[in-house]
Amino acid sequence: MYFKKNILFIGIVIMILMFTGCANKKAQEEKPQDSQNISEDTDKEVATELTKEQAVEIEKEFFKRVLDLKMNEETYEILDFHNKEDLISYVSEVADKKLADDFVNGLYEEKNGKLYIIPKGGPAAIVEDSPFELNRLDEYTYELIQEEEDMLRGPYKLTVEYKYLDNAWKMSSRKEEQRIVEENNIDENTEAADQEIKEIAQKVIYAISTKDGQTISEYVHPEKGVRFTPYTHVSLEEDVVFSKEEMKTFFENQNLYLWGYYDGSGEEIKLTPKDYYEKFIYSEDFINAPEIGYNEVLSFGNMLENQFEVYDDPMVVEYYFPGFNPEYEGMDWKSLRLVFEKYEGSYRLVGIIHNQWTI
Q1: Strands 315-321 and 334-343, how do they pair?
Q2: Where does the pLDDT of residue 11 fall: very low under 50, low under 70, confident under 90, or very high at 90 and above?
Q3: Residue 153 confidence (pLDDT)
Q4: Which residues pair with 256 in a beta bridge?
């Protein structure tokens, strides 16, 4: 009897110890898990905050991946990628896959195992220096809204949506809408050009077409000279400027100049003035262009238009070819812009801007 009681007592003690050990083990397993959950919740809360600076950087990276690719300028072949699938995957690292798919399929085509860009105008982008709103719609969604106006689109509203996908903020959609402005104060300088500018522009474009440096120099601004811009966007730091005197011997000048950088490849544009003329001034017979605009932008592409901001109350005369190859449906346009400013009561040439479709 005594033996049985001892056995029973020992058994009860063992059971208590086993139960206590299991309970402690369970508590030890659950405690780190609770701590981990708290850590994850904290990280998640930090990740769902998007700043204006981050939103702009995502946009820059998106356009860099969609448009800033190495390209053969003659054939439009993309050298970085050979198919849409790989490019979509690359863009999807910063954007929703559907958005990446829509952009890549709209801008590129595959031919014989190679990838080509389709020449066409690009979408509006966020203007960093202009105000915009960034509103939080829910825990995982932000919406950026910017109202802008430019010479190409007029008044417009840009809406960009960002979502928290794959543990990172990505662009999920973008929409561009025209805005109605009740009052549009048009500068007097944008009205129809008077007879004076038409006559001067005709003389300058004729002199350019015949490579008459002497005559061109007669119309060059005596203080500012004439600035040469290879691709639409005027750069005060990089564009080459020739003085009135230097313009006289422009076509005889055998020196190499750095005029800027080729769009697509990013390589230096190092050419003599004569070679630059063939590629970035009179690349087409602009004197016979079918359309001429006076302070009216006829052509547009992906680069920022800034001639009206850079030059002082300018008169811009544009000679525009809307297209050459029917296959491109008018997207292989080219234009030449002559920029004039008033000097002592007369128009003087201050800029020559070459414009064509760019990526």
Answers
A1: antiparallel
A2: very low
A3: 65
A4: none
Task: Give me the helices (H) in 48-118, please.
Answer: 52-67, 84-91, 97-107
In a domain, 41, yes or no: no
Q: Can you tell me which residue has the tokens 């007669």? A: 218
Structural domain contains residue 1: no
Distances, alpha carbon 131 to alpha carbons 58, 128, 134, 160, 320, in Å:
17, 8, 10, 14, 33
- Provide the 8-state DSSP code for 212: -
Direct distance between the N- and C-terminal alpha carbons of the chain, in angstroms, rounded to an integer: 98
Which of 112, 147, 178 represents a domain boundary (last residue)?
178
Mean pLDDT for the stretch of residues 54-68 = 92
Domain count, the chain: 2
Give me the CATH number covering residue 288: 3.10.450
CA angle, residues 129, 131, 132, in degrees to nearest 5: 120
In a domain, 288, yes or no: yes
Would you call 187 helix, strand, or coil by DSSP?
Answer: coil
Q: Which domain holds residue 255?
A: 188-356
Residues 166 and 306 occupy one common structural domain:
no
Contact between 302 and 283 under an 8 Å Cβ cutoff? The reply is: no
Token pair for residue 258? 């750095």
3-state DSSP percent of the chain in helix, strand and coil, to 5:
35, 30, 35
How would residue 303 be classed by pLDDT, with cut points 50, 70 and 90? low
Quote the crossing angle between the two packed helices 97-107 and 52-67, to the nearest 10°.
40
Decide if 67 contacts 76 (C-beta within 8 A): no
